[in-house]
Amino acid sequence: MADTAAENLTDGFHLIIDALKLNDLTTIYGVPGIPITDFGRIAQAEGMRVLSFRHEQHAGYAAAIAGYLTKKPGICLTVSAPGFLNGLTALAHATTNCFPMILISGSSEREVVDLQQGDYEEMDQLAIAKPLCKAAFRVLHAQDIGIGIARAIRAAVSGRPGGVYLDLPAKLFGQVMDADAGARSLVKVIDPAPRQIPAPDSIARAIDLLKGAKRPLIIFGKGAAYAQADDDIRTLVEKSGIPYLPMSMAKGLLPDTHPQSAGPARSLVLKEADVVVMIGARLNWLLSHGKGKTWGDKPKSFIQIDIEPKEMDSNVEIAAPVVGDIGSCVTALLDAMGDNWKAPPAEWTDAITAKVESNVAKMAPRLQNNNVPMDYHGALGSLKTIIRERPDVILVNEGANTLDFARSIIDMYQPRKRLDVGTWGVMGIGMGQAIGAAVETGKPVLAIEGDSAFGFSGMEIETICRYNLPICVVVFNNNGIYRGTDVNPTGGSDVAPTVFVKDARYDKMMEAFGGVGVYATSPDDLSRAVNEALNSGKPTLINAVIDENAGTESGRIGNLNPQSVVSKK
Fold first, then answer.
1. Cα 330 vs. chain centroid, distance in angstroms?
2. Which CATH number goes with the domain that contains 263?
């Protein structure tokens, strides 16, 4: 009788797993430990893919980029207190960048936390998480697991996507209930991200403004890439004839070599445009808040497409706000344009074409050098060719100079193939995003890292080797942050704060974990090594030696550093 009774019971472990699987969430990124170690073991035994990282922050970045690539919430699992805090940076990053993600953390029991009785890793995690994510929930009873996970999924993907925190106290996992009742308590989320149709008058207003434009411009943000409305977006661009400018993670929605791409003429089009259509992009610091010298002194009218009404007028007046999901809004614009849409004046498009051709021609010789040691242009020029020949490769990119130069040099040809630091410009996303991209897509990944940026997540190369993922990491090694030439002004024995160990051999780290390590000193060496890595699919790290004099302070955003007005003598 006891065995029969046991067969009719389930517990919190299995209910959480069954609720996730019911909603097609079958991959977990995390770090095992108290109180979630057994959960990871059971989830793997139940057929889920459970990937264990060396640090929760990087597991969180993997989950966040999984959400961006799949439009389903990526799942990150952490232990309590310190582990939860490690994952919290990634959760906030996901919310800021509008990536759907759920951070699930074990926690201490409520009665102990509330009386502050000093439990193991005691912390009021729910209260801490709330300001940093889109929503936060705690589940105390096994019968509420299904509804708790359903609420987390819907919150993560509906409207403007973002990060959600789900708090699971340790005792919840072992709670037992009738198996049939448990199965009935689970929820299959129906239409978690319903279409939000724009108001017809907002579409008419936008069309009227575009009809009167002499110098129109479309700007795509990563929200446009996330929407996966690729065919309609391309049709809108080509039917309208309007030049477009992609933000970094929107590159590849249309090929960067498309005749309407204004990427190499960015300064010109931002200053001269009279009507700017923002699609899934925000007028934040990445676009100089829509004002200032970047935008010139000519009057501009903005059309903004966003699912979040509060985004409108955040920095400048939006003349034609269009609120809705991007796919529905683009479809409505196409319908309203009709069959006789008039292309922008040739004077505008010809000026952009001329500027693009001129800037590309000026840059070409710099990208073809084979200098030893390498500069950024020669090194990235060789990688630009590889991406052109292998457009299916996913590019992960972070750093200061490494990020800024790569954004402008490497053309992308397919959507959602360029993954970088996003809105915050946060360092350390590299290895987590590379792992998440490889796992979710099965595609080869090329991660181009500054040596400083790589340092934030470098131990995850062991994770890459452990799971034998097709990731090639290129570390641009210039001996420091920005450059390796700064000196201690006191003449003391400590090196300058921005300087690293000279001639470090990051390639040896990869070899230590069983991967392939390569030392490259020229663009030809680099090209050969990357192609071999992508052909083999083996975990590879290439230590690309960059001239330590080649970098510039803070890449292209050195102006954000406050300048001292006091000189101490």
1. 23
2. 3.40.50.1220
Q: Nearest 5°: CA angle at 557, between 555 and 558?
A: 85
10 Å CB burial of residue 118 (0-12, 13-18, 19+) is exposed
Which pLDDT score, from 0 to 100, does residue 271 have? 97
Cα–Cα distance for residue pair 408/424, rounded to 1 Å: 19
SS3 call for 261: strand
Q: Is residue 556 part of a domain?
A: no
- Is the dihedral angle over the CA atoms 296, 297, 298, 303 positive or is it negative? positive
Establish if 345 belongs to a structural domain.
yes
* pLDDT(3) > 60: no
Task: Tell me the average pLDDT of the chain.
Answer: 95
Write out the H or E segment, with its range, that includes residue 202.
helix 200-211
Evaluate whether 221 touches 250 at the Cβ level (below 8 Å).
yes
Torsion of CA 418, 419, 425, 431, to 10 degrees: -140
What's the structural domain count of the chain?
3
The answer to whether residue 527 scores a pLDDT higher than 60 is: yes
What's the predicted TM-score (pTM) here?
0.96
Query: Which two tokens mark 516?
Result: 């392939």
Query: Over the stretch 494-518, which tens digit does the pLDDT of each residue have?
Result: 999 999 999 999 999 999 999 999 9
Beta bridge partners of 302: 276
Q: Which residue has the tokens 């009809």?
A: 211
- Indicate the pairing of strand 540-545 with strand 471-477: parallel
